[in-house]
Amino acid sequence: MATYGSDQLAALADPSRRAIVEALRAGPRAVGELAADLPISRPAVSQHLKVLKEAGLVADRAEGTKRLYRLEPDGIAAVRAYLDRMWSDALRSFADFAESTESEEP
């Protein structure tokens, strides 16, 4: 069973997919618009968008003859929640360690 958030993190492991997510922060864009700003082909952008969509990080809708892609708030929230949990756990562990070493001092 995959850890909650791991599908999204795996999708973001690729630098091209991260670049696409960054580009979509400004708002919905078509594949051609994304490809024009990236050093990869339009078919490659489409494949990356497919992975991002399967991971729940982007959604698309038809507008005329093209599809517009946008960030999916629930998918982005899942990544943030996962990272927040990891950070909280790490801080809690650090605090526990610091407190235990203070109690060991003479």
UniProtKB/TrEMBL annotation:
The keyword GTP-binding does not apply. It comes from the Bacteria. Pfam families: HTH_5 (PF01022). SUPFAM superfamilies: Winged helix' DNA-binding domain. GO terms for molecular function: DNA binding; DNA-binding transcription factor activity. Residues 1-91 form the HTH arsR-type domain. InterPro entries: ArsR-like_HTH, HTH_ArsR_DNA-bd_dom, HTH_MetalResp_TranReg, WH-like_DNA-bd_sf, WH_DNA-bd_sf. Keywords: DNA-binding, Transcription, Transcription regulation. This is ArsR family transcriptional regulator.
